[in-house]
Each structure stands twice: as C-alpha cells, then as structure tokens.
Fold this protein.
Amino acid sequence: MRTSLPYKINTMDIKIVEVTSRKLLRTFIHLPAKLHGDEPNWMPTIYADDWNFFNPKKNHQFDSCETVMVLALADGKPVGRIMGIIHNQYNELRNENTARFGYFDSIDSQEVAHALFVFVQDWAKQKGIALLVGPYGFSDKDIQGLLIEGFNYSPLIDSACNPPYMVRLVENEGFGKEIDCMTYKFPVNLALPELYYRIQQRSNYSNSTELVEFTSRRQLKPYIVPVLQLVNRTYDDLYGFVPMSDTEMHEFASRYLPIIDPRFVKVITKEGEVISFIIAIPNLTKGIQKSRGYLFPIGIFQILMASRRTKQLDLMLGAVRRDYQGTGLEVVMGISLIESARKADFKNIEAHLILENNYKMRAEIERLKIPAHKRFRVFRKEI
C-alpha cells in the first residue's frame, strides 16, 4: 500500500492510505456506518450497489475520469475517507478545470479532515487543477452536497445524511458555497389552485398529447430509455450534469426498475414520443435503515415491506421537453400523481434535490406556498 507522510492528531499519527485492495475498499465502503450508524436520522447506502459503483470494471464513469480513494488511519484504525475525481468529459464540455471531492467522512476531528483534504488538494494540483468542489460524485445522479439544514428530518435515498459537524470540518478547511439544492415536502391533500384543474381539463380535450399511466413494470419498461433520453436533452444546462451513454441508461434502468411502483410514473407523449415525465417512488428509508444496507438474506424483504407501509412518496425525477415547457404539462402530471397518491392513501410527497438555480421548477413549487424542507450545499475552494 502507498501512504503519505504522517500527520499528527493529538498523540496519534494520522496516515493517509490509498485504497488499492478489496480489503481496503471494504473498509472505505463500510466506514460511514461505523461513524454514524447509531444516529437516528442516518441511513446507509445499499452495499451491493456500492461494490458496483466503486468498481471501474462495472462503473463506466471511471472511463472518463481520473480518481483516487484514500482512508485516514489513526493508530491503525480508520477514522476518515475521501475520494478525488477529475471528470475530464465534464471539464471538456463545460470548459472547466475542476476536481471534485466526494464520499468524505470523518470522525469529529479537524486534524483528520485536514489530512484528507491536503491529500486530495495536492493530488489535484499535481494534475494542474485550480478549483476543488464537492461533495460530488461522477454526476448529479450520485449523492451530492452536505446536508446543512433539516438535520431532524428523515433522509431520502441517494441524498446526504451527514451530522452537523461535517459541515464545520469542510468550512474550516477554507471551503465556501458553490451551489445549494433543496427538497420540498407537502401534504397530498394540498389545496391546488382552480387554475390547475382548468389546465388539466383543457389538456383532456386536446388530441395532440396523451397522458400515459401504468399498472405494471412490464408496461413501463419500454418507456425507461426514452425517459432517460429526454433527461439528456433537458438537463444539459444543470450544474454537474453529465449526459448518459446508452450503456449507462440501460444500467440505470435495470437498477431502479425493481423499486419503481408503476402507479407513480406519469408520462406524456405526442405522436408516440415522450415529451414529459415524472417518477415518484414510495419512501424506502425505514426499510434501508432496518436492513443496515444489506439486501441479503432478508434486507430486500425489509425494504419492500417498508415501501408498502410508508405514507410518503419521494418525487425522484422529472422533465419536460424544452419546446413544451410552460404549456402546463407539469401541472397535468402533478395532478395525476397527487390523485394516484390519494387513492393509495399516501399522506406526503417529498421532492428530491432541486438546484437553487432551477428557477422554473422552484417557482412551480413555491407558487403553492411550499417551503424548502432540507438544504444541501456543494462547496468550493481555489487550490
């Protein structure tokens, strides 16, 4: 194994060790549970997914990136971790010269955090990078940012659930705000403006578009790739977005199709072409917490049971083709989703991370007087 020069943490030596073996990768993947597993509002990742995600042979994002993964050891015990990513494809698309840090975790020790960040900053500078941002993964589909508001609320799948001290550790290393994103939570019985129902009625009389609803995954499956193709065409100006390849679309579909409830997917087509969609899933948090991140031998059943018992829907993804934005399609899909949620006796819907500069989507939500529920921050530092 390769190590950096030791740092000092009180009377302990801090050693930064690069993850170069399966044993060290196991330590890297499971470290957050050791640090935060007893906290009530913490949720593990699905470890089976992690083993694929951090495997360059299975995660094609590695093909266009330079990466490094390290652990911080104090007296031989793991006390922190971090990943450095230089996304060459993204930098070329955006004409940037940026590196990312992601999957940062640490005990509440500024010395440990400092050792980790010094390593990643030195690694990035050696490659000619001038700006470090994060936490961020390969793309906006990965966990992004640190939770900075809403620590008392239950976490969502694929979102950060760090303790408050982690924010302090990052800020004390000289990082400032790059961009924020929020979640919004609202009751299913929310009173909608009469205007929305007039928009829905007008759409019902139109023969040019069709609202497609589903009762089975078999019906839904042919729409998944067209939906993701629409994501590519409409998310390209959003922070951190990297277009998905055909291979990544099929991998993404195979990963998420098993947990999608077809009742809560709404697609609008015109002449058979997908022009808008929204996808919501029953909240899985309690099931993932109970499974402790393991699918086997019984974790998968605990997650499925939680999805059947929950009273919350998580709105995960949505898009409207640019030439149809502002025409009311999002209202038609939203009303349909709320009606399906009411029929299924759900009580709340929480919209997944929305960038603060996604003004159109925020305006639609905030027009209904729905406040931000949680806030996450991506940080930046010139190096």
In short: Confidence is low (pLDDT under 50) at residues 1-8. The chain has two domains: 7-182, 189-346.
